[in-house]
């Protein structure tokens, strides 16, 4: 999306081009539901703006605009439009850094609980809540995507308003850091998979792959049980029974190097 198109999109979506508080206007603009509010002290800390001068022009004035310390009536319309464009980019890039801080993670967790980022469209994920993710930490590479912690896959946003948001505003590390910080948010991974059929019969190649995958899963469950690790339908991991856990892993290597022959039915 070009600068002119982006400016038109933001202007047309808001009731007035500049509301009383810039952050309230920005977060209230349709399509910006994925963003959380950045603490003012965070965005005014120069340390948190390190390295952004190559991406954003007029950073001091853009910060003043974001924090409502810029007298808009004293500048020309052209400069105001330019600063507004820069302020949106600056807010997005600082947002990438802010959401992996302890304070930012708390705010994003609240949005995650409310499913502000949407639900996974995969049937077996049963409306699992999604997390925003970027495919790159740099501007202009890719739009924001949505990560499902259940099937561990990524999806395009359903709304065209969200699909034009730059993925750099969320970064590549956010879902991983979020799930490490809140292990209780790691869902149960589904064991069901869809197998295409024709009149009730599995398709040859798909059935072959599905049987191989199921065999590998059963082998893993058996190996874990042999080590005192119980696989249950519970979020975030396994239950380790009280026993000696210092056994060597030689049998793991043997299992990985074993060729499995699958007979076709």
UniProtKB/TrEMBL annotation:
Q: Which GO terms describe its biological process?
A: nucleolar large rRNA transcription by RNA polymerase I; regulation of ribosomal protein gene transcription by RNA polymerase II; regulation of transcription by RNA polymerase I; regulation of transcription by RNA polymerase III
Residue ranges of region Disordered?
240-265
Compositional bias, Acidic residues, is annotated for 247-258
Question: Which InterPro entries does UniProt cross-reference here?
Answer: Casein_kin_II_reg-sub_N, Casein_kinase_II_beta-like, Casein_kinase_II_reg-sub
Any one GO molecular function term: protein serine/threonine kinase inhibitor activity
One cellular component term from this protein's GO annotations in UniProt: protein kinase CK2 complex
Biological role stated in the UniProt entry:
Regulatory subunit of casein kinase II/CK2. As part of the kinase complex regulates the basal catalytic activity of the alpha subunit a constitutively active serine/threonine-protein kinase that phosphorylates a large number of substrates containing acidic residues C-terminal to the phosphorylated serine or threonine.
Q: How does it assemble?
A: Tetramer of two alpha and two beta subunits.
Give the family from UniProt. Belongs to the casein kinase 2 subunit beta family.
Name of the protein: Casein kinase II subunit beta
* Organism the protein comes from: Wickerhamomyces mucosus
């Amino acid at each position: 999306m070009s600068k002119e198109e982006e400016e038109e999109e933001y202007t047309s979506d808001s009731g007035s081009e500049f509301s009383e508080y810039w952050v309230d206007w920005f977060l209230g603009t349709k399509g910006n539901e994925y963003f959380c509010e950045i603490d003012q002290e965070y965005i005014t800390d120069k340390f948190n703006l390190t390295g952004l001068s190559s991406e954003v022009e007029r950073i001091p004035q853009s910060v003043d605009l974001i924090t409502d310390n810029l007298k808009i009536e004293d500048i020309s319309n052209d400069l105001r439009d330019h600063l507004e464009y820069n302020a949106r980019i600056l807010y997005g890039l600082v947002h990438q850094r802010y959401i992996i801080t302890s304070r930012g993670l708390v705010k994003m967790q609240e949005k995650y609980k409310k499913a502000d980022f949407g639900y996974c469209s995969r049937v077996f994920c049963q409306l699992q809540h999604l997390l925003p993710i970027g495919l790159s930490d740099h501007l202009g590479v890719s739009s924001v995507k949505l990560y499902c912690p259940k099937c561990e896959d990524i999806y395009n946003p359903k709304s065209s308003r969200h699909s034009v948001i730059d993925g750099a505003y969320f970064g590549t590390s956010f879902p991983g850091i979020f799930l490490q910080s809140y292990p209780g948010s790691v869902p149960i991974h589904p064991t069901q998979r869809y197998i295409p059929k024709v009149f009730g019969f599995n398709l040859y190649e798909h059935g072959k792959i599905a049987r191989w995958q199921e065999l590998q899963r059963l082998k893993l469950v058996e190996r874990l049980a042999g080590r005192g690790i119980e696989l249950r339908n519970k979020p975030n991991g396994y239950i380790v029974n009280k026993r000696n856990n210092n056994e060597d892993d030689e049998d793991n290597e043997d299992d990985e190097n074993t060729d499995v022959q699958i007979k076709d039915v």
